[in-house]
Design goal:
Blueprint lengths: L1 H83 L3 H27 L17 H19 L2 H8 L3 H22 L1
Helix pairs in contact: 1-2, 1-3, 2-5, 3-5, 4-5
């Protein structure tokens, strides 16, 4: 009878321990799930906050990339026309400006991608070029209009959002575009 009592008490202890272990495992499962859900929710909210924080900056970068891409195509077309007219100096000028615009496009596209944006260069045809003299006039007008429309607004928005990296890029491009105008006017 003594062995039987010991057997029942051991069996009762094992059942109690099993119940306790199961309760602890269930509690850990629920606590772990709650912790994972909390972490996931916070990361999603942080990602959305970051995305919305840089949204206008990414849009500005993509707009600048598109504009530079189109301008590069125009300058390349104008360089081809200058070559047809044996105007070596203007051909070199237009090729240099086209390359500069290509650099602007790449810089902005890379920065947009660094901040989670996506840039795809537009499928655009270059302007049909006329004479080199007319192309110079069109280029000056286009560059002035482009510069006057933006006047560093994108750089100002980047500074306001605290993105000094993008602000430096946009300020550099704005200064470069001013130099383009000077070169074209000469």
């Amino acid at each position: 009878s003594r062995d039987l009592g010991t057997l029942f008490s051991c069996s009762a202890e094992k059942t109690t321990m099993k119940s306790r272990n199961i309760a602890i495992m269930v509690f850990c499962l629920f606590a772990g799930t709650a912790l994972l859900v909390t972490i996931y929710t916070r990361s999603k909210l942080a990602g959305q906050a970051l995305e919305s924080e840089w949204k206008s900056t990414i849009e500005d970068l993509c707009d600048n990339s598109t504009s530079a891409h189109i301008q590069s195509l125009r300058y390349t077309s104008y360089a081809t026309q200058a070559a047809r007219e044996d105007d070596t100096l203007n051909e070199q000028l237009f090729r240099a400006l086209a390359y500069s615009e290509l650099i602007h496009e790449r810089m902005c596209a890379k920065a947009a991608e660094l901040f989670g944006g996506e840039y795809t260069s537009p499928h655009s045809e270059a302007d049909i070029s006329t004479t080199t003299e007319e192309n110079l006039k069109r280029s000056i007008s286009s560059a002035r209009t482009r510069h006057n429309l933006t006047q560093g607004e994108a750089a100002s928005r980047a500074i306001e959002s605290g993105n000094r990296y993008v602000a430096r890029i946009l300020i550099w491009i704005d200064g470069s575009n001013r130099r383009h105008i000077e070169l074209l006017e000469r």
